[in-house]
Amino acid sequence: MSDNPYAALGLTKTATQDEIKKAYRKLVRTAHPDLNPDDPTAAARFVKISAAYDLLKDPETRARFDAGEIDATGAERPERRFYRDHTQSRGQSPGGGQRPHFDEGFDPSDIFAEILRQRGQAGGAGGAQGFSAPGPDLRYSLQVGFLDAALGAKTRITLPEGGNLEVQIPAGLSDGQTLRLRGRGAPGFGGGPAGDALITVSVRPHPVFARQGDDITVTVPIRIDEAVLGAKIDAPTIDGPVSLTIPKGANSGRILRLRGRGVKRSGAKPGDQLVELRVMAPTHPDQALTEFLQGWAKTQTEDPRHDLFRKGA
Fold first, then answer.
1. Same domain for 35 and 148?
2. Last residue of a domain, which of 126, 158, 183?
3. For position 166, which CATH number holds?
4. 89: helix, strand or coil
5. Which of 119, 132, 131 is nearest to 50 (CA)?
6. String of DSSP letters for 229-254
7. Residue (of 218, 273, 275, 283) closest to 246 by Cα position
8. For the segment 59-73, what is each residue's pLDDT rounded down to a tens digit?
9. What is the pLDDT of residues 221-256, one digit of tens each?
């Protein structure tokens, strides 16, 4: 290997660990023999890139190289202990068929590059024959309407690379939930299966409804006469209007429950709709109502604020 592993990755000694990781992920795809069968120099470049990354990916080993304690091959002075031997002692045996070991904080996007590296080591400079790997997952964002998320719907998203993807929104989808469409990601390598499409959904707020778990909440205004005398009114639900009975003497803030009128998720008990009443005084009361209330107020002795002052004492 070159005496300068930084140069092998196209970097300088001041590169950050994140820059080393990104450079390796980019180069390993351009140099792996199985992915570049028409390039006779790919195998040699792959070996150099992998060896450089082996040396620099661990900050401790990188620091020892920078300090001159080990050379570019990973050999110590004078013991000539190979860093690759050290990593293999933790379970990274390229030919042993074990899973790659990833330190805490390892970026999942490195998994494919790590597989390529270990496969290349197992097959020697000529690369691994018959190697295949799943394609990477592709991530998308999708914004849907409140009712589509609550009731379920079909929609399409336009892909950056062209074309579109049909997405089935399941009933009861929550804001921030991620849908997985298997096999709709990037193509696999060497005949491997395609990755998945991961779609993170955001739900637009609704001007009337809100959601608490699987329950739907709504505030319904009522007139003074409906609050005092009771009434039957039409109340909105996510499935359409339903008849709602307002009990006599209803006050603002009272909550009426419509059972089973909330979100209906597959395999779960349907939620309810919670209707909060809000008593609305007329904006422009007519003369008859004004005169009636003036006379009625003279006969009233009940103070609705009595308990408020007693509890605050």
1. no
2. 126
3. 2.60.260.20
4. coil
5. 119
6. H-EEEEE--TT--EEEEEPTT--TT-
7. 275
8. 888 888 888 877 777
9. 999 999 999 999 999 999 999 999 999 999 999 999
